[in-house]
Amino acid sequence: MGYSKRIDTLCSLLKKTTSFADVGCDHGYCSKYMLENGLCEFAILSDISKGSLQKAETLLNEYIVQGKAKAVLGNGFFGVPKDTKEVLIAGMGGEEIVAIVSHEKYGFIPENFVFQPMLNPEKLRAYLLENGGYIEKDYTFLADGKFYDVIVGRKRTVEEKQSYTEWEIEFGRDNLKERGEDFLKRISRRLKDTQSFLQRENLQDKSRVELLQRKYRLERVLNDEIV
């Protein structure tokens, strides 16, 4: 697709749909991908940053002129209709994404979604599972020297049920089942960092206990010892 590996990965996870919203769109590359490839009839470019939104408007000017795209300056789902069929939110913290989808006025669980939390993916997983989301894919990938989590899913039907174990909420179900190379690299790096921290002098007892608990969990994941 020609963008960064991270953007290309996110684009590859998007489905063909009628209406699409890229919340926190930055340059607007994912919306361009959707429109250029005929994967959506209408796209909403949303960002809280005026500068970022202007970049997206410039990139997608021809689609805006044609009435196939609209730029919205605002926070979260402000200006994004609740009947939007597919939503991408990438590059924000998990807690920030939770705040967006749970907003008392503008929040909603999209019919289809691709979420790429930079931090605290476990909090986003837990929220989605408890509030009507259904997770279809949930894994870690390495792009441009950094590790990313991506959570792909949809709004759950009334009849459907889905539950994660404590371990799956923390690490991601697909990661634990498929044990992908990128995920294991990340766990190995985290374990190495944890072991390094444990070597520090003057560690407080509470910190040492927390680090030992983290080391134990990471070792179990790495050694495939989770039942």
Annotate the secondary structure layout.
Elements: H1 5-12, E1 19-23, H2 29-36, E2 42-47, H3 50-59, H4 61-65, E3 69-73, E4 86-92, H5 94-101, E5 112-117, H6 121-130, E6 133-143, E7 146-155, H7 166-171, H8 173-178, H9 181-198, H10 205-222
Parallel strand pairs: 1-2, 1-4, 2-3, 4-5
Antiparallel strand pairs: 5-7, 6-7
Helix pairs in contact: 1-2, 5-6, 9-10
Explained architecture:
There is one protein chain. The mean pLDDT is 96. The protein has 10 helices and 7 strands. By secondary structure, the protein is of the alpha/beta class. The protein has a 7-stranded mixed beta sheet, sandwiched between helices.
The averaged pLDDT comes out at 96
Strand order of the largest sheet: 3-2-1-4-5-7-6
- Please outline the major beta sheet: 7 strands, mixed
Secondary-structure content class: alpha/beta
Q: Segments where pLDDT lies below 50 for 5+ residues?
A: none
The total beta strand count reads 7
Indicate the proportion of strand residues.
15-25%
Summarize the amount of helix as a percent range: 40-55%
The H/E string reads: HEHEHHEEHEHEEHHHH
Cα-based radius of gyration, to the nearest Å: 19 Å
Number of helical segments?
10
Distance between the termini: 39 Å
Give the overall form.
elongated
